[in-house]
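Postdoc handover notes: sequence design on the structure in folder B. Input tokens:
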């Protein structure tokens, strides 16, 4: 879980599927305490990796990486 405390960040979620295809999603701001929503479609079961990138207009870009399994 990643909590972002700003409501004006540029956010992008990159998902790497089991067949090594890269899919990018742009985050939508919910205006609720820095919560962002990504509408993600995962077409196949398996092990996924992800990279969450977020930045402020005048700040440094931050990244969070991880993985998960879809059964």
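Designed sequence:
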């Amino acid at each position: 879980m990643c909590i972002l405390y700003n409501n004006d960040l540029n956010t992008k979620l990159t998902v790497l599927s089991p067949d090594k295809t890269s899919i990018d999603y742009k985050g939508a701001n919910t205006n609720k305490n820095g919560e962002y929503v990504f509408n993600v479609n995962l077409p196949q079961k398996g092990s996924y990796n992800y990279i969450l990138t977020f930045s402020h207009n005048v700040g440094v870009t931050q990244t969070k990486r991880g993985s998960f399994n879809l059964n």
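Context for whoever picks this up: The chain is about 0% helix and 50% strand. Don't rerun without checking with the PI first.
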